[in-house]
Specification:
Helices cover 48% and strands 11% of the residues. The chain is built from seven helices and four strands, in the order H-H-H-H-E-H-H-E-E-E-H. The protein binds FE2/S2 (inorganic) cluster.
Length: 163
């Protein structure tokens, strides 16, 4: 995995203090702002948040881990999410998951070394009638196959390397 430049606790605190008052109700907006800025929640930013709000780090981690929108690791430029729910599983999502995992060379939850893709697997995304479903960069694609997802991944890789 590529090195992600790290920002110190002091710098994070300065940045947070420049935008938010030291009030506990700003915890989630602060986490959202950090994630928007860094793409994930670096440990230094969590310490800085706790110090700025004068609350325990465990509280910051507790809230951040409660919400699926927050990530603790750097994320790829593209997010490929395979639905593992029952309807999708019955229609072959397990094979899609394992083939795309092989194609990308990372397990679900992993990010490729070039930081282009994060692969994830989730329970039902609520579009069972379209099974098997794959969500790519937030867009839901139904009736997917190993080939269609592989092609979508290849296309994204091509587009990203052309830029
Ligand atoms: S099981 Fe995949 S969308 Fe519901």
């Amino acid at each position: 995995m590529e090195d992600v430049p790290s920002v110190s606790v002091v710098d994070w605190r300065r940045q947070i203090a420049g935008q938010f008052a030291s009030r506990p109700e700003y915890l989630i907006p602060i986490l959202q702002s950090i994630q928007e800025d860094a793409g994930f929640l670096p440990p230094e930013s969590m310490v800085a948040t706790a110090r700025h709000l004068r609350i325990p780090e465990s509280k910051v981690y507790g809230v951040a881990s409660f919400y699926a929108q927050f990530n603790f690791e750097p994320q790829g430029e593209h997010r490929v999410t395979i639905c593992r729910g029952t309807a999708c599983h019955v229609k072959g999502s397990g094979r899609i998951e394992s083939e795309i995992s092989d194609q990308l060379g990372v397990p679900p939850g992993g990010t490729t070394g070039d930081m282009l893709f994060t692969l994830e697997a989730v329970a039902c995304v609520g579009a069972c009638a379209l099974a098997p479903v794959v969500v790519i960069n937030g867009e839901v694609f139904g009736d997917q196959s190993v080939d269609s997802v592989k092609q979508a991944v290849d296309k994204l890789r091509e587009d990203s390397t052309e830029e």
